[in-house]
Design brief:
- This protein is an alpha+beta fold and about 325 residues long.
- It has seven helices and twelve strands.
- Strands 7-8-9-10-11-1-2-3-4-5-6-12 form a twelve-stranded mixed β-sheet.
- α2 crosses α4 (about 180-190).
- It is extended and about 150 Å long.
- The chain starts with a helix and ends with a helix.
């Protein structure tokens, strides 16, 4: 009987061990399957996330689409520049509205809040689309003008600089070459710059994606190639609205402008774009000011010519271009 009991107990222990081995193997198999499924899910999520992250080109296209939707806005902008001969800085507050004038002209108001040049603080520019005011507390004066009076004068002044753009650039392009959509505009831009994502940052209260623009050397005028550097652009993450722009590591210096506060497409009262001239302020008509500037320019030019013309010449000497010089050049063998 004892031998029978021992045999039965041994059989029970053997069956228990076998069941235990099967259970452990089953658990290991199930664990392996679970790990494989988790890794597969993580890989899938990673692939999907990678395809969902917009490229630099996508962000830039979305930014232009956002700008197309803007009808007005308000911002506080800080600026700073390090130039070869001086550093400048400041901040200003700006309001704007599209299609405010009689012919769809924009309205704008800019107030200088801070400036490295103290005389600029408080300077205010206001335009309702048809007329404008430029007020200077420092000089206690305001320049006033009408858009229809200024337009032809400005066009005339701009014509004086025709052909003087860097590299002899010609902007008289065929209308067919002008981009018609944001996507076309970005494609055209990419012919001249490489654009890559460059991390993220914070501008004011807004999270932003950063894009870096590097000029393609062979597509740039000589002046731009010599200047070097690159441009960083901050786009608000929620809608790709431009928040800041920076030019850095160039031979001509550095520049940074950022909107520390910004709102778009909010209602702005039309009274914001009107200006009441303070009592006792000198009023200057813009057309008169331009005429004075043109007269001053002519006097300076004439003075420079006089300074290069000698009051006396040595005996026998004559100014270049005289009849004697021309006759001398016509002699045979000369």
């Amino acid at each position: 009987l004892n031998m029978l009991r021992l045999t039965q107990q041994s059989n029970h222990r053997s069956r228990y061990k076998q069941k235990g081995k099967h259970s452990i193997m089953k658990i290991k198999k199930q664990t392996g399957i679970a790990i494989a499924v988790i890794l597969l899910l993580l890989g899938t999520v990673g692939i999907v996330a990678a395809t969902m992250i917009p490229s630099a080109q996508d962000l830039l296209t979305a930014s232009l689409e956002t700008l197309e939707s803007v009808t007005g806005g308000h911002a506080v902008v800080t600026v700073g520049a390090q130039l070869p001969d001086q550093d400048i800085s400041g901040s200003f507050e700006v309001w704007g509205k599209l299609n405010a004038g009689p012919n769809g002209e924009p309205a704008i108001k800019v107030v200088v809040l801070e400036a490295s040049q103290n005389e600029l603080i408080g300077t205010t520019l206001v335009s309702d689309g048809s007329q404008f005011w430029l007020y200077s507390p420092e000089t206690n004066s305001v320049v006033v003008g009408q858009a229809e009076e200024m337009a032809p004068l400005i066009t005339e002044r701009m014509a004086e600089y025709e052909g003087q753009l860097p590299g002899g650039a010609d902007f008289d392009h065929d209308p067919a070459d002008i981009p018609q959509t944001p996507a076309e505009a970005v494609s055209k831009l990419l012919e001249y710059f490489t654009v890559d994502r460059n991390g993220s940052g914070q501008i004011g209260d807004n999270q932003a994606d950063i894009l870096r623009f590097v000029p393609i050397a062979e597509m740039m005028p000589e002046e731009v190639r010599l200047a070097g550097g690159f441009v960083n652009l901050w786009l608000r993450s929620e809608d790709q609205l431009p928040l800041a722009v920076e030019y850095a590591e160039g031979a001509v210096g550095a520049f940074l402008a950022e909107a520390t506060e910004i709102q778009i497409n909010e209602t702005i009262d039309d009274g914001m774009f009107s200006f009441t001239i303070p009592e006792g302020v000198e009023v200057i008509e813009a057309v008169d000011l331009l005429a004075q500037m043109e007269a001053l320019k002519q006097r300076v030019t004439a003075a420079e010519v006089d300074a290069l013309t000698p009051a006396e010449l040595p005996v026998g000497a004559e100014p270049a271009g005289t009849e004697h010089e021309e006759a001398d050049q016509e002699r045979p063998g000369r």
